[in-house]
């Protein structure tokens, strides 16, 4: 007898879930003055292209230039 009751409960739950799914599980959204005044989203702007890399200086292979680049990078990376 308990198996029949359990089976009936399962059937009722499955039917209730099907009806709930068909009806739409989310409750209806009520339009409030706050949501009505919200402007529609706009299209995202196109990303700006990155600037072309600067020309390599003439002394780029010298140790002094590499040290200067390291110092400048270190200054801004470790703020």
UniProtKB/TrEMBL annotation:
Composition skew (Low complexity), residue ranges: 28-41
Superkingdom of the source species: Bacteria
Chain residue ranges for the region called Disordered: 28-62
Pro residues bias spans: 42-54
Protein name: Uncharacterized protein
Gene source species: Candidatus Gemmiger excrementavium
Upper classification of the organism: Bacteria, Bacillati, Bacillota, Clostridia, Eubacteriales
